[in-house]
Amino acid sequence: MNARVKIGSVGETQVVVEAKHAIDFADDALPPVLCTPWLAWFLEHAARAAVLPALAAHESTVGTEIEVAHLAPTPLGRTVTCRARVIRVEGREVSFTLEADDGVEPIARGFHKLRIIDKQRFAARVARKRSGG
Questions:
Q1: CATH number of the domain to which 57 belongs
Q2: Is 98 a member of any domain?
Q3: Which is higher by pLDDT, 28 or 90?
């Protein structure tokens, strides 16, 4: 790490909900809304944004745990703002509280952990697995 990840650091992402982000089982009786897997993806990227300034060029992050309560539906066209706040740093593991809103109401809250990894070591581990070893 170039710098220590600081408790209280906040990362944020904003995204306009598009059709590709909607639940895939919506029909005329169920309007298209933001699906939970995409919401989790946006929240993880908010967490990454909080730690990226502290990473060295050879480092990245991987998610290791996520708990998200999806509280309210968000229709297509709304802008969702996701925030992740660092609450704990233990070695290479960083923990966050998560929240998201759609400009009308809170739509999610949760908890997330990222692990800071060495890209080369991670790639070598994946290569070993790919080759069956």
A1: 3.10.129.10
A2: yes
A3: 90
